[in-house]
Design brief:
Layout lengths: L4 H12 L3 H7 L6 H7 L6 H10 L5 H6 L7 H7 L8 H6 L3 H33 L1
GO molecular function, one term: DNA binding
Organism: Flavobacterium nitrogenifigens
InterPro entries: Lambda_DNA-bd_dom_sf (IPR010982)
Amino acid sequence: MIENTIHRIKQYIDFKGIKVSIFEKEVGMSNGSFASQLKNNKTIGVDKLENILKKYSEINIEWLLTGNGNMLKCDVLNEEGLVYNRTEKEDTEKLINYKELAEARKETIESLQKVILYLETQIAANSQNKK
């Protein structure tokens, strides 16, 4: 997949930890429109880009439009002591959302605990029947 402006916006959203629905509201997009554009690999209008850059002024416009340079403007990088360089697509795909992973594992554990309880009940019932 070719990285384009809409994918770089998503990369920024992920970097900042912003929920897509909040991002959409803040930049004047209708609910679900950004996700739809991303899913369908669509472009984004100039009016929306202007709104994004007004709301999130730390975004480096060159990076946003071309992918060249740093995600954040140099003055923002210096202020916050951040160093963010463009990552390759393969690297971003390897990133793990640990919160989602922990929640999924918690659900698995709870499900397995129910299975164990059921099986223990069955074993106890079978033991009673054999006596």
